[in-house]
Automatic annotation (TrEMBL):
Originating organism: Rhodopirellula europaea 6C
Region (Disordered): 1-40
Alphabetical UniProt keywords: Membrane, Transmembrane, Transmembrane helix
Record's subcellular location: Membrane
Protein's name in the database: Hemocyanin type 1
Membrane association type: Multi-pass membrane protein
Gene Ontology cellular-component annotations: membrane
TM stretches of this protein: 35-60, 72-93, 114-138, 160-177, 184-203, 254-279, 322-340, 346-366, 373-396, 467-485, 510-531, 543-560, 591-624, 652-670
Chief site of localization: membrane
Pfam family, one: Wzy_C
Domain O-antigen ligase-related span(s) in chain numbering: 333-474
Amino acid sequence: MNRKRRPGTPKQSLNRESTVDWADDSNSVSKGSPFAASGSGGMTSVVLAAFAALMMWAFYHPSDSTEVEQGGALGWCLSALLIVAAVQCLRVGRSIISGDREHRSHDSVNRKSGLLVDGIVWLLAAWIGCSAILQLYVPSGFGDEAWRIGGDWRSASNEAWVWIVGAVWFVVLRRCLRDRVNQFALLGLMVVGGVLLATHALHQVHVSLPQTLREYNADPERVLAEVGINAPEGSNARMIFENRLRDGGPTATFALANTLAGLLAMALVVVIAVLLRVFGKAFPGAVAKLRFWQSAVGRESPAGDREDDSSKHERDASSNQHVAVLVGLALAATVLALALKDTQSRAGVLSVLIVGGCVLVDFVWANAFGRRVVTALLLAISAVFAALPLAARGWFGTGWIAALPESVRYRFQYWDATWRLVEYSPWTGSGPGNYQQAYHQFRLPESHEIIADPHHFVAETLGAGGLPAGILLVALLVVGGWMIWRVECPPDASPLGESSEKAAAPRPQLGVAGWCVPMGAFLGWLAVWGVGIRNQQLPDFDAHLIAIPLACAVGWLWWFKMFNASLTVEAESDVAYGETTRASRWDVRRIAWFALASGLLHLSFSGGWTVSGIAVVLWTLAAIVLSPATTPSHSSAAKVTNVASGKVTETAVIAVVAGVAAVGLWMVSYRPVTESKRWMADADLQIRRGNLVGVERLCERAMLADPYAFDPAMFRLHAMEQDWVQRVVANRSATNMKPRFKDALADAIQRAGNDPSKLQAIGELMLHRYQIGGETEVLAQAGRIYDRCQLLSPRHQGIAAQRAVIAEAEGESAEAVRELAEKAVVLAESGGVVTRKLSLQFVLVVRPIGSSAIRQPVRQSAEEAMDSLRL
């Protein structure tokens, strides 16, 4: 193309159309052949392909809610660590054998900033690991009459590995994203995953959930049994299930609609940002009118800068391609927006509205000053949302909290409880994976539910690792924000664009570098469906008949069509004024920064900070935003240094850390958890066959495989209870508690630790046994268990009501029983929450009933029971 030279434009850039600097000097992917790549570039492609496969796996198996604590993410974490260790070892070996020495221009300030970020990330992961290890030494059981928090090592270790893998993922990926083609490809994978799950969610809304609701209305008990929920008719548990079934929204592959909304919000922001840029190419005249104020400052296009006929013809010819891509992106945005709306996540919608507004202003206000304003505004908004938990302790007054919407007020209750937890245990908090059991002790009386996390990423970090972890996270946010500001608003930035060196960067092509992400995603998809077919646990097949073709279409549009149309490599020019500005160019890092901000805003009101399907997106976006390519040298005195030896050392350290972590994960968590689950799967099969003796043996093997697992101990206790029931049916006098059962009971109590929910399950089993056999020893043991439950969860109305009924059966004074009943009534009325009312609670009848209670425990309304005890 023959374009006349603009005043001040370097001659060497005339035939490049002022392309954006996609590739770092260290990466030679785009030099020469489209498939040419340096050795390091080839290894980078392997890393990116592996990470893309892991991301696709996480989209299908996100380990939402409490699944991380139960070990649902261990296989994914182990795979990530093994891949990183292997690739980093290959990199070290290649560098040593080939003797490669790379010379790069480095700004010492930028390099130190990157190392500082890496150091903070490593320290945060290490501290969370230490907090998990300390759970081994938290007293539990009946030996200590004081209440404690934490102590569940298995849950703590399972969650701690996610933090460690997150550190490894971020540090490795940050170094692999100097090439902006790869950055853009990874953003495409997030969009593809978002569209895949959004289509799945829409299928649930319009097909799956209505069908399930019809089946539930026809046979509620069958549906409840299929999903494994114990919810008697008229109970609050059934009310909660019915409300979520009717109004809870879709979840796709996640467990909670609100968590799914986080991924949809980030993907939608990316699509909006790209959509606006494509719109600018398809309709440059309309964009020029939007940017009306630029004419006011005298930026008229020189007469000699007009496009010639050939250039104009070429631009018109590509306009149709731009419009086609625009339509495709608009369709993807529509699918994401509809699914996000159906999740009914106000946090997700709010994050898109705020960040989407900033994206629009950034697009319209396309100059250096506008860029600075948008960056400052978004950083300020993010800081306010990150600091929201500070208001929970009344440091900014509390009167305004009462005027907030109900769901927001609940969040302040969660954060208030988290601060009181940190005040009690400032160094380690509750430990990772132990927040839910600790929340029982610190929640406000009016809180209506037991949550698994405090619904704020900073508060969740405080709960998992105490003040040190919170301080490290805040330091990471501050340093990251400073790096973003320094890159977005450099002191010597020219309003007319970047240097001639940047303008002369060669146009990259898809090649090996661009293929690695879609190929990795495809391999991950194959693995998901292959393993699903082998284990007979396929994803929703009907939904994916629609979701997969649509996701593939979006992937083709993003990874191939947009590259072929040169939409991502050609710098945008302001047609109206004939200038190529830094603000108007495609900036992949800036798009990633917008998406990351939307994710953090969403996590300021929602959980998901350690959910693999959400966390992996956050880590990747952070790696793009803070990658070395985004921190170019702004100093003219930058030194040219040989950094090869330092880079080899860093690579070797990462390889050692990942390798040691993989070995530790295998030995400490993965092997015991998977072996225990394997034995438990066999035990579940045997109990369906009625082989109770075989169930006991299998549970004992599972307990031996994992000395910290609670489920095998509880399952064995349940099997022994069923065996006892069969003996009682055959011989009514065989009601005594055998030593073997006492040992199993002690094991279950010990493994329940300081978790009142687990202890409550054991207590209900003992009360059921008392209903059948009427043994005073069993009643006394149940009373001790519920005493411990009340100590650990003093504000649970159901536990208080059950303890009052037990106290009457034990023969305590009428005054003491009345006080316990009054306490249950007061707790149930706190906060005015419907699901806490005693009319929706049930307690077990505490009296000998006999054979009529064998099939299932006899329950009564907690309201009726408390009314009778208060007379």
